[in-house]
Amino acid sequence: MLVYTMSEKEKQILVQQLSEKLTPEEKEKVKEIKRPYTPPQLRGFKLRYNVGELVVNTDVKIKAIKVPDQTDIFEINKATGNKVRSRPIDKSTGKRLINGFGYNSFDEITNEPVPDNQIQLVQLKPDPESPTQFKQIEVAKFSKTDEVDITDVEILPRQVLNEWIVDKEYEIYGKGADLYKVAKSLVEKNAMAGIKEFVLIEGKTMYKAFLVPPSVLMENKFYMVLKLARRKRESLIKSWLNANDIEEVKEKKIKQGAKIEASLDEW
Fold it and tell me: What is the model's pLDDT at position 92?
């Protein structure tokens, strides 16, 4: 007998589709059901810190810090009000595929293709009078950033970047003679340039941008990078530590095997 196992993504889509069909009363009942919390299994290692006169041996666990996707802005089908999703297709026929070389917009419930002129971008706004406590407001996409002005106000200490989770990082191309003057000015100030609002492509995502020079500037060989971020690290931290906490984590056995040779850049 062939048994089909749903992926986590498929489960999430199914749950979303089912929840959208619930009445407000049914949604309230679902909220009342308390599900037991199951802590995630974390990776870890033993940390041995031996610097100067300080020696610390301790077990640590690690968990990736992820910037969540923005869920309050989404596209809907004007005709049905259902959410619109981008799905892979066969370019030659336009039919849906599990994996394809092209993409098209489909109604999340009916699975029918949705033309561009029937797609509406909306944002959820709080509304106490609505049964769902939210209402949908039509919004316009952000326009792509074509010009950036940097003045004394935008010059920031390099340490500020440590507060942000960088989503994307890009090399800067241009006239070396012009960019060297910019890089030299920033390096002399031990600073970088902050761009309050930056839109990479027309869409619903806006970033904070940072124009960063190298730590050491050489006239005949230098670079600059543009770093894009959406959230500060502190707003995403869950494992706040306490200096009075002496609880130890259990050690995890590590499988033995041949050592993999990995080429890593030096400090």
Answer: 73
Residues 124 and 139 sit within 8 Å (Cβ to Cβ)? no
Dihedral in degrees, nearest 10, Cα atoms 173, 177, 179, 183: 130
Strand ranges, E, within 119-247? 119-126, 134-138, 155-157, 164-171, 191-198, 207-212, 225-232
Q: What is the pLDDT of residue 251?
A: 43
For residue 226, the tally of other CB atoms under 10 A from its CB is 19
What does DSSP assign to residue 24?
H
Q: Which of 73, 74, 49 is nearest to 59 (CA)?
A: 49
Query: Cβ distance 46 to 251 under 8 Å?
Result: yes
- pLDDT < 70: residue spans in the chain: 1-16, 26-41, 100, 248-267
Residue 17 neighbours by CB under 8 Å, 6+ apart: 108, 109
The half-sphere exposure of 91 on its side-chain side, counting CA atoms within 13 A, is 3
Other Cβ atoms closer than 10 A to 238: 6
Place of tokens 């394809």: 100
**How many Å apart are CA 17 and CA 22, to the nearest integer?**
9
Residue 230 tokens read as 């959406």
Give the pLDDT of residue 29: 64
Instruction: Tally the C-alpha atoms within 13 A of residue 158's C-alpha that lie toward its C-beta.
Output: 12
The confidence score (pLDDT) of residue 155 equals 96
> What is the distance between the alpha carbons of residues 187 and 213, in angstroms, rounded to a whole number?
7
Does this model's pTM top 0.90? My answer is: no
